[in-house]
Design a protein that fits this description.
Distance between the termini: 79 Å
Helix content: 40-55%
Radius of gyration: 30 Å
Strand content: 15-25%
Structural class: alpha+beta
Number of helices: 15
Strand order of the largest sheet: 8-6-5-4-3-7-12
Order of helices and strands: HEEEEEHEHEHEHEHHHHEEEHHHHHEEEH
């Protein structure tokens, strides 16, 4: 790469062995007759890929493409993490690293073609000196390797491209449209807005995104979504010229995106709510235990993220209030704490619903409905705990004495009040 850089920045005669995309050494002689000051000596583009269907790809991807036609060089410089597919636990622990990769364009496009995701190219209108400097900067970043912890919030693909281009421009400024400064969304709002076709991914992602993602983003800081970067740069200028081409070239045709179908998180939440209400009459303890188990599993997951994980944006999350392992730990003494806790959760639901209606959501509506179902389960358990009367029993008052009457095979059995639960 050093020989390549010498050629790009103006050393007019050089020869050496460089490594091609297959890792083979190739003898290369750089031509003296190439005009390295021509605007098309280096062509720089922004590549944007369609969103995927998994957590780490649901917002799409962006990278920089640099071409040097005179020497047949064509690479995508893609800033991304180590593979998540086989290291999910490392991802949740915040142990993955990230860095910059140089990938031949055809190989890069093949990756997205196999996934059915489109890739679109927007040419960058930058001075030749800036494009050469950009190539030098990216080459240095590659040499650093995977030395930065994975951080999708502060070092995502889109915002990193902004930083690279700004560094290459040096003193020259990118002039943005005023609308970029008038709109001040949070990272959470941007993620929700751009993941409407993947509601299950959005549902899970909100468990991972903590309070830091609720800080309003101003100006360039809000360019964390690839499509938002395209919109902003199409309206921006450098030296009075448009920064980005208005129409893209399609490198890979994407397949139509489909939603999650009818079984969404909200459908699941409504089913749980209906069953919780029905169980007030059915009085089946098994459903209550199922709800407790689900709440505890999610609670342990939330506790791990907040207390032990190094993953970014997990320092605090409002979902830890309804989803935590404390109810299971203190379940035996629920008659003392269940009612106050149900009240706290009711206030939580009202607060979260108000924030969502106000336009600043902290959770999804499906989370709120699930918490309402959990409140009903707790209230039901208060009734079950404070009364020893089981389904199929009834209280009978005779001569000032209270008896519990149950029916078993058409035979009435009379027990002293308070003994029915121990007998069964």
């Amino acid at each position: 790469m050093l020989v390549l850089l010498l050629s790009l920045i103006g050393v007019h005669s050089a020869s050496a062995q460089i490594v091609d995309a297959q890792g083979q050494y190739v003898d290369t002689v750089f031509n003296d007759n190439v005009d390295r000051t021509a605007e098309d000596f280096v062509i720089a583009s922004l590549l944007v890929a369609d969103p995927g269907t998994v957590l780490y790809s649901v917002l799409g991807h962006a990278c920089i493409r640099l071409q040097c036609p005179a020497f047949g060089l064509d690479y995508c410089f893609s800033y991304e993490s180590e593979s998540v597919k086989n290291r999910v636990l490392d991802f949740l622990a915040g142990k993955l690293m990230m860095g910059l990769f140089a990938i031949p364009v055809e190989e890069y496009c093949d990756i997205y073609r196999k996934d059915g995701r489109g890739v679109y190219e927007y040419q960058l209108n930058l001075p030749i000196e800036t494009k050469q400097e950009l190539w030098r900067i990216l080459d240095e970043k590659i040499a650093e390797g995977h030395r930065l912890p994975y951080d999708y919030y502060h070092r995502g693909c889109a915002i990193t491209i902004v930083d690279f281009v700004k560094e290459a421009l040096a003193q020259t400024k990118i002039v943005y449209d005023n609308s970029l400064y008038e709109y001040k969304p949070t990272a959470r709002e941007l993620c929700i807005e751009n993941s409407q076709l993947a509601l299950w991914v959005q549902f899970v992602a909100l468990f991972l995104v903590g309070d830091e993602a609720d800080i309003p983003l101003v100006g360039e800081k809000q360019l964390i979504i690839p499509t938002d970067l395209v919109d902003a740069w199409q309206k921006a200028t450098v030296n009075g010229k448009p920064l980005l081409a208005s129409k893209p070239a399609i490198l890979v045709e994407g397949e139509p995106q489909v939603n999650d179908g009818w079984f969404t998180p909200m459908v699941l939440a409504i089913i749980l709510l209906v069953l919780s209400i029905a169980n007030l009459f059915w009085k089946r303890p098994y459903f209550d235990w199922l709800m407790l188990a689900a709440q505890t599993l999610i609670g342990c997951f939330m506790t791990y993220l907040i207390c032990f994980s190094d993953l970014c944006c997990t320092e605090w999350n409002w979902l830890i209030i309804p989803f935590n392992p404390l109810p299971l730990i203190f379940w035996h003494w629920r008659k003392y704490w269940a009612l106050p806790y149900a009240g706290i959760l009711a206030v939580w639901c009202i607060a979260m619903a108000s924030m969502t209606l106000w336009g600043h959501p902290r959770v999804d509506w499906s989370h709120i409905v699930m918490v309402v179902a959990w409140i009903i389960t707790i209230v039901h358990q208060i009734d079950m705990k404070t009364s020893n009367i089981l389904p199929g029993h009834k209280l009978v008052l005779e001569n000032g004495n209270v008896f519990v009457v149950m029916e078993y095979k058409n035979t009435k059995i009379v027990l002293p009040e308070g003994s029915s639960r121990s007998v069964l």
